[in-house]
Amino acid sequence: MRGAVLYAPGDVRVEDRPDPAIIEPTDAVIRLTATCVCGSDLWPYRGVEQVDGPAPMGHEYVGVVEEVGSQVTTVRPGQFVVGSFWASDNTCEICRAGYQSGCVNRVLMGALGTQSEFARIPLADGTLVATPGLPDADLVPSLLAASDVLGTGWFAAVAAGAGPGRTVAVVGDGAVGLCAVLAARQLGAERIIAMSRHAPRQELARQFGATDVVTERGDDGVAAVKELTNGLGAHSVVEAVGTQQSMMQAIRSTRPGGHVGYVGVSHDVALPGDELFFSLVHLHGGPAPVRQYLPELVELICDRAIDPGRVFDLTLPLERAAEGYRAMDERRAVKVLLQP
Question: Which of 26, 199, 288, 307 is buried deepest, with most CB atoms within 10 A?
C-alpha cells in the first residue's frame, strides 16, 4: 500500500509500505476513505520532536472494515467506522471511567501511521464506532474530524466546564481550537471568545458559535479577555496550542474558581507554582479520550446537527501529502484532508 513517511524535518514522502494484516485476534484492518494532517504532526515535521529514522505518519482515520480478527464482535467487514487516535480496549477500569486515552492496553495510532491506504486497528471492539450505514460523501470530512480534532476540542470544552451561563475563551485558532468553539456552543455556553489573528479562522469561529474575537496574544490577550469580562476573566478557558505562552495566557485569562481545559501537546511548558497557587484555577486536560465522545459525535454529525468538517480547507490526494504538510506549516491551511 501507499503511505506517508517522515524521514527528517521537512522531508515527507509517500512510498510503498507493507500491507497491514491481522496480528492479534482483537485487530481489524480498514480501507481508509479519508485521513488528514494534524497540527501535532507539525512538531516532528518542524524538528521540534526528534524523528528516529523513517517514521510512518498519521493518526486520524475513517474507512470501511476489510477484515476482523477472530475475537472482534462489535464491527464487521463492510461497515464504515470512525476510530480514536488512541486504540483502547474500552473495558479496563480507566476506560470505564471515561479516560480511554489512558487505557492500560492503549496503542498510539500514530506509531502505526494512518496517512495510508489501509490501516491495522488494534483493540477494534473498544476503538471503532460504526456509522448507521455508509455515510453520504459530504459527511466524511466531519466524521474524520471526530477521530481527533472534534473529540479533542470537545474534551477541552468539557474539561474547561463549558456550559450554560458560562463565558468560554479559546486560546488557539487551529482545528482543535475551532472545534472547541463548536463544542462550547453545543454545550450551551453563553459567550465564546475566540482568540485569533487570522481573518478566515475568525470567520469560521463565528460560524461555529464565537460571539467575540480577540486578536491580541500574551498579556495583551489576557487584558482583552479581562476587559470583556468585567475584569474577572472567563469561567472556562481552552488551551489548544501547547506552548509556554499559550498556557500562561489561558491560566491568566481564567477567573478565580474557573477551569482551564488544556489539550495542546505540551512542549517545554513550565508552570510557576506560586502564581498557580494563588490563581485558584482548576487545570484538567491531556490527550483527549476521544472514544468517550465518539458515539454522541457520530450521531450529531449523521443527524447533520454539527458540521465540523469545515475545518478542512484543503483537500489533496494522499500522494501529495508533502504539499499538505507545507501548507499547514506555512499556515496556508487550517487542516488538510488526504484522500487515499
Answer: 288
